[in-house]
Amino acid sequence: MSGGESDGSGGLVLLDVFGSPFAQRVRIALAEKGLAYKRAEQDLAAKGDLLRRSNPVHGKVPVLLHAGRPVCESLAILHYLDEAFPATTPLLPADPYARARARFWAEYADRLHFCGKRLWLRRDGGGEEAAEPEAREEMVAVLRALEAELGRKEFFGGEAFGYVDAAAAPFAAWFLTYERHGGLSVAEECPGLAAWAARCSRRESVAANVYPPEKVYELVQEYKQWVLGRK
To answer: Which letter, b or e, does each residue of 188-214 get, where b requires 16 or more Cβ atoms within 10 Å of its Cβ?
Structure first.
């Protein structure tokens, strides 16, 4: 799978794994900007030379190669795309204060992933009674903070889909997994955020690059069994 075969991208190659929400951020951004690129799916269990050379510090995806030069870490890549391709639709707002605020909330959205992992990566299975109370409370707090920032806006940046939306949209597909393992309901706790997630899921850039929630849940269950089986 690739985002296009033309050379109009200036030689963009994305090293990624399709199911990675961090890699999905970059694919969403590339789609929103209409940039052609080639995907190079990576095997994280047996990392190849290209990935090791491109990200020698962490050896993780995503890595964007632009004319052979690597840019690592998903949010850094989103920044880079705005600066390297100024003629495309911007993700970050022009106002310096709004840009700083967007960067803060995009980084804050990572808490969904790390807190969610505490909910589902447990040996004892799902259900509200089995969830760590602290992890569940933290997840609800993170969701509510994001909803408060969203407010009554269509997207985090206003009417237009932007930087925070691209950063957080992949995690919206994980809401079902968080609910089943944490004994919570995003729609009940944060109806505005749930509506935002639904709007994002209908965008072509998101739908084409993010697994649907049931698929995410299935993959998480498989991954959980694999991880716990190694312990």
So the answer is: eebeebbebbebbeebebbeebbbebe
